[in-house]
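Hi all, a correction to my earlier message: I attached the wrong file for Type I restriction enzyme R protein N-terminal domain-containing protein. Here's the right sequence:
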Amino acid sequence: MNEILLEIREFIKKGYFKNEENVRFSLVSRILKELDWNIWNPKEVATEFNTVPNEDKSRVDIALFDNSSTPSVFVEIKAMGKLEFDLAKHEVQLRDYNRNNTAPFSIITDGQKWRFYYSQTGGEFSEKCFKDIDLLEDDIDDIELIFDAFLSKNEIRSGKARIEAESYLKLSQKQRIMEDAFPQARRHILKPPFPSLPEALIAIVGKEGYTVSIDEASRFVKKQGAKKQIPEKPRTPRVKPKPPPTKRIGTEPEYITKYRIQLANPNSLPSKIKRYIFENSPVTRGEIKTVCVNEFGCKSKTSGSIGASIKLLEFDGYINVFGHGDSTKISNV
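and the right structure:
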């Protein structure tokens, strides 16, 4: 999915999405397909879904159904750049859809910006927003993780998306900002003046109007680090038990299991990348891509298998990843 998101980002920059229909068909539907929704089955991905059968006006752009007669997700789509224009009106529109035919998750997007709402919680509808992403500004890996966690068919079906959304909404506003700021703070420590991770976190959260002490930031960073487990290396090849995910959103993409199994084979790509990192740490993502093409048999540096292998090693606590793009610094734990 990483490659598709990068291509969509380029299309947005070039202004290819001229209207709402472009966004719905060429952007949103493309992402849904990657998240295992059958976009060709109207019973699963229903467009112009009538939330009130006896009324013609209440139609949501896309309703997703997961083996149920009731919708799991509503997606309301706007033309590119129009999401923040009259956002309150858009939220009222989604609120009204959910009054008559509630979907646990609701999304408003203009293609570039996405706002995720968990409908089955109390309060004003605007307060039900638990995640927002920007396909131009946010880190591609973070975007992929959020889509996988809260919009993939598997996570919706399993109930993991619901559990994670409820957990996030229970956090205080400052805690949410700290959670959201953590990946950015990890990237900032690699840039001059090279602050410590707690210092970087304090600076980012401060821009949002919240004061965080150095002790509070240090405890938060320590808590984030505790999410990682460093598994013992098996003496004989075997499928390593699935440890808790290390990313802040608490879930892992479905493909992780597939690549985790491959680690049992010393000749698989994940095993080769792991061995290369351990023998040459620290390395950059760009260096890993180069060696994968030149020595490990990958067809191109944009191969999704490279990114998936690195993501697995990070999830399972083998490596630390700091930075963004090909200059990302990767070291063994």
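Sorry for the mix-up. Residues 173-188 form the longest helix (16 residues).
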